[in-house]
Amino acid sequence: MVDARPVGFAVTEGVAVIRIANPPVNALSAPVRAGLSEAIAQASADPAVRAIVIAAEGRTFIAGADISEFGKTPVPPTLPQVIATLDACPKPIVAAIGGAALGGGLEVALACHARVASPNAKLGLPEVKLGLVPGAGGTQRLPRLIGAAQALPLMAEGTAINAAEALRLGILDAMAEGDLLAAARQHVLALAEAGDPLPRLRDRWDRLGPREAFEAAAAAVLKRAADHPAAAACVDCVRAAFEKSFEEALTFERETFLRLMQDERSKALRHVFFAERATAQIPGQPRDTQPRRIEHAAVVGAGTMGGGIAMVFANAGIPVTLIETHQEALGRGLERVAGTYAISVQRGSLAPEERDRRLARIEGRVGLEAAATADVVVEAVFEDLELKREIFGSLDRIAKPGALLASNTSYLDIDAIAQATARPGDVLGMHFFSPANVMKLLEVVRGAATTSEALATAVELGKRLGKVPVVVGSCHGFVGNRMLARRSAQAERLLLEGASPEEVDAALVAFGFRMGPFAMIDLAGLDIGWRTRKATGKTAPVADALCEAGRLGQKAGRGYYDYAGGARQGTPDPAVQQLIERISAQLGIPRRAIGREEITERLIFPMIDEGARILEEGIAARPGDIDVVWLNGYSWPAWRGGPMYYGATLGAAHVAQRLAAYAERSDDESLRPSAALSRLAREGLGFEALARTAA
Ligand code: T1G
């Protein structure tokens, strides 16, 4: 009978096993910290106990501090207090690490005298991903175990390493091939019998390694951490190991941790952590819905997207049939896939034998009949509704019963596609983002008839493919592209009113994006948007004029910018400025100098307004889902939390007021705040209020 408390205690043959059981990931919540502290004191005082093992139930060791407690009043004992108890224990303690030992979980293990792990263990200090530094001794103990120069990058990047690497580095003392607990007991008894003074990391100043090596590692971190205060703070904490006593350095680390805890970036990153996990809860879905088993996939269309999607399945170990209508198109598609893998092999990011295994999982076939045995079929053909309806009509006849039928369409009506079949319940959108084998976001688009089981299958499959699946409703552009359209419209409008492409791009880069809208369009190619606008009867005067002038972007050597000599970095082109000014004049739009604040707000605030409409229409279930879409599909800066999180920090009233002012100033009705946003502003409500109203 497992003790109801989150920490169990049992003594057998002189070894006290302290067992943490706090599902799902043994986070160090207040009850766990209290239980751990009591158990260590009990074991220390018990004369029958010669040695101690700390173990954990379930699939992880300890996933770290309980992030849901952050920002609340700390409940003693704090983790540093628990770790101080461990550190003061007069009896040998070994950590038995099965699964993940992350953050505070690794810090607990580092305070033990030794660490034994199973081969599947993962160890790391990921606090920096939450905008924090390790706050319970990690910045002092890890450098005293493996050297400061090796420890710093691990915590500054927050990467998790596997057990083999941890053993090689010296974080682990032994690997348990079989019974982990037995191996840990054996190790700790050997420590007890040796009778030597117990190894204490606090005393291993000698293991820090050369200061110069640390400073070189620090310089490398600081070069990459330009706008990442937590990574820079890791440098300061580890440097303290060279300059302060252990206790003083621990105090410095704790002060740094608590300061960063209050930082807006950390709050945003903690929001992202939970928002990304909340997307797995599909709105209105019975939690016990069982996803179907996917063992074989088919992808229809061997173009750029189809080939990329086939790679996603192959990379996840799922055999996939890549289907085309003609052999030559299929051949081109397969060559493109092989070429993409070859680049990864050349870069050293993919071993040749793994490349071969993945390629072997991709079978090229001509004709839709090849989809007959697939458990999931992803259509990735040209963005033409009639063509897609025709394909789904055929798939309805060919695909096996229960197969998931998905379209990769980026904006077309899923219901119209589903109605081409007699099984609309099995039809949904799986909108991958280009390049499909790289981008994390997967919009799972639910049709009116899509069943819960089909949705659960697509979400489960998305996670298995290494994607971040977000369930969205069907409308033009779903969530991401629908909000992008608002930003793109304003980007074009700002050009016509007097801003230059480089001023617009610079504003978004200063906001935190890696690239501005025009550099991004030049990279992707102006013809993609041009084709969509022509198909939907829309216009964008500047973009259309550039396309008509053959300025299709980097691939054409010029777009919004000039890429003379095949340059990757575009340079402003006076011809573009003249073209813009000419169109402004033709449209009778007066030009003026536009400041950065206005540019930034006119790019970002319409997206927030569109997000409010999306919530009210029920196209997204939660504001956080919209944030996850933009973080994983459009490189929204994670330390700003996402468009809806950012909007919430400003308040709906502020956003609405600014939009109304810009609408007046620019005489642009598209800037006027929507009814949804105006209601929130009037009633002083948060964006989640809209999600509740859209049942
Ligand atoms: N605190 C609270 N809840 C957590 C949690 C945590 N540390 N980690 C996971 N969860 C929840 C998560 O929200 C989800 O809940 C469920 O557990 C399953 O998570 C002092 C201060 C361990 C690799 O950053 O990386 O220690 O949605 O879906 O895919 O220096 O969870 O089911 O309700 O991710 O199997 C540092 C974060 C904290 C590790 C497992 N630790 N967690 O992955 O499950 S800061 C981390 C993970 C710290 C100290 C500092 C992963 C995992 P729900 P999941 P998974």
UniProtKB/TrEMBL annotation:
It catalyses: a (3S)-3-hydroxyacyl-CoA + NAD(+) = a 3-oxoacyl-CoA + NADH + H(+). Pathway: Lipid metabolism; fatty acid beta-oxidation. Keywords: Fatty acid metabolism, Isomerase, Lipid degradation, Lipid metabolism, Lyase, Multifunctional enzyme, NAD, Oxidoreductase, Peroxisome. Pfam families: 3HCDH, 3HCDH_N, ECH_1. Residues 477-563, 599-684 form the 3-hydroxyacyl-CoA dehydrogenase C-terminal domain. It is found in: Peroxisome. Residues 297-474 form the 3-hydroxyacyl-CoA dehydrogenase NAD binding domain. This is Enoyl-CoA hydratase/isomerase family protein. It comes from Pseudoroseomonas ludipueritiae.
